[in-house]
Amino acid sequence: MSMSAIKEFYSAKDENEVALCIKDLNNPSFYPSMISLWVTDSFERKDMERDLLAKLLITLTKHRDGIISQDHLTKGFDSVLMTLEDAVNDAPRAAEFLGRIFAKVVLENVISFNEVGRLIYEGGEEQGRLVEIGLAAEVLGTILEIIASERGDSVLNEIRSSSNLRLENFRPPSSNKTWRLDKFI
C-alpha cells in the first residue's frame, strides 16, 4: 500500500493524498520501514522524483498533525544506510542520491547536520562499515556540495561550525583515493 501511494504521488504530486494513505495505515511502527522503502526505491528513479520525495518527507515530518516524527525519519534513514552498500551494486550513484536527500532535510531543519553525520558515521551492515569502504565520504561530501550550491558558502560554514563533526573521520582509514568529501577538509 505504501509503495502504491508513493508511485501515485510521483504522478499526481498530491502530498495530502499520501498523508491520508499514511493515516489510513495507522501503523507508526511501520513508518521507518516505509521511509526506507521509499528512499531505497528512489535510487532507481529520476532526479525529479527524488526531489519530490525529499520534499514529501520534509512536509510529512513538519506537518501540523505530525504524521511522521523525526524519530521515524531517523530510523528510516538508518535502515537505508544499513543497506547502502548493497544498494550501490544496483544503483551506483545511490550514495550521491542519498546525500542529496539528506542535504534537503538538513537545510529544512528537519534533522540536524550532527544527527545526519552520526547516522552516516555509524552506518552500514556493521557499525562504521560505510566509513571503511568510502561511502560515508561520498554521502557527506554530497551533502556539503548541495548545501554550498543551494545556499552558499556562508550557510555551509555556519552549519559546519555549529556541528561537532570532524570531517576527516568520515574518510576511509589509510586511503589514498580522492573522495568527494576531500574538498571540504
From TrEMBL:
Keywords: Initiation factor, Protein biosynthesis, Translation regulation. One of its GO terms (cellular component) is eukaryotic translation initiation factor 4F complex. PROSITE patterns: MI. One of its GO terms (molecular function) is translation initiation factor activity. One of its GO terms (biological process) is regulation of translation. SMART domains: MA3 (SM00544). Coiled coil: none annotated. The keyword Protein biosynthesis applies. Residues 1-121 form the MI domain. Signal peptide: none annotated. PANTHER family: EUKARYOTIC TRANSLATION INITIATION FACTOR 4 GAMMA (PTHR23253), EUKARYOTIC TRANSLATION INITIATION FACTOR 4 GAMMA 2 (PTHR23253:SF9). Belongs to the eukaryotic initiation factor 4G family. This is MI domain-containing protein.
